Amino acid sequence: MATTAQDTGASEAPQKGRLIDTSYFQGDKLIWWVVVMLFIFSLLGIYSSTSTLAYKMADGNTEYYVTKQMLYAVLGLGLMFIFHRIDYRYYSRIAQVLWIGSIPLLLYTMFFGTEINSASRWITLPLVGLTFQTSDLAKLALIMYLARQLSIKQDQIKSFKEAFLPILFPVIVTALLIAPENLSTAMIVFFTSVFIMFIGRISLKHIALLFGISAVVFGLFFVILVNIPDTALNKAGRMKTWKHRIENFGKTDELGDDEYQVLQSKIAIAKGGFIKVNPGGSDQKNFLPHPYSDFIYSILIEEYGLLGGAMIVFLYLFFMYRCIRIVINAPKAFGALLAVGLGAALVIQAMINMAVAVNLVPVTGVTLPLISMGGSSVLFTSMAFGIILSVSRNIELQSGKESLAIG
Length: 407
Known about the structure:
By secondary structure, this protein is an all-alpha fold. It has one domain (50-397). It has 14 helices and three strands. A hairpin with a 2-residue loop joins strand 1 (114-116) and strand 2. Mean pLDDT is 83; it is low at 1-22 and 402-407.
């Protein structure tokens, strides 16, 4: 028996060792690599697209903006590390408080927000002077809150009164508060939320009803909008901008600001060809008004060809695939909905940004996640990645416990 006990102890030791945290960076390793690759593309694109601007604005220091972006990348990776080490179930506890807290911030932004590029989407933090988009926080909070509510209401999930209406309410409130200054982000929030509701088993007839009503409302809104004289929209916030973007989409005879940007973007893409490796060799960065944010994808194609552009598309789609794998393996509904919701929001935003660059949709103003230059957007996106990796990390730990139990 003594020999048997020794054998048992020897066999248990390495199995227990599997549960010891031997790696600082846990979760899906391939998602970590996707993040690294996106940050590499970001630094390459920003260094090229901001060199002239930095020379003018930073007393000849052409590395000013890329150094600043590198700092945000490091901070973003730090936040990812912190958020992925937190058990994702804690996010369920703070989701409701975080979403409720985002509402007054959105209201404050609407009336007292800092105006940048003709839009009041930012709040300037006192003392430090840093700005951040409250819509980034609201989007993150809403997705966490929806994942929580959907997981709680699984027993009544097909009920219109008990599940559909209570879950739809925060979506409508958040989207309406974001829309006046950032319609594109409001639409991303809305459609991402509907996608999460679909994954969360909300009744298809309720979702179909929502789409039908939404289509009618949006249709009427845009029909009325394009028929209102410009003079009547001068004091109507960004409605005049929305009208011009809808009316002039696809036109090339008269170039407004948006059409000029799209034209320069097309020229950049045409210069890129199929295969090209020309870091810093973009010409259109000197003509595009926002080559480091809204149209950085065009600059990257100009310098690295369509193959480089295709690689960026692949990275986002591959990231979504890994999120779906997390959903399949997640033991709890909250973790699955959290991962797929945050992943879908990031990928939808990326696809819209790239669609604008190739003129498939009107100009929106949304950035390319982790690639476009930015401060708060990079940090909130990094938090989202960290939360997704937290779900993945929990799956790995649960798998280790199950293996130990089987052993």
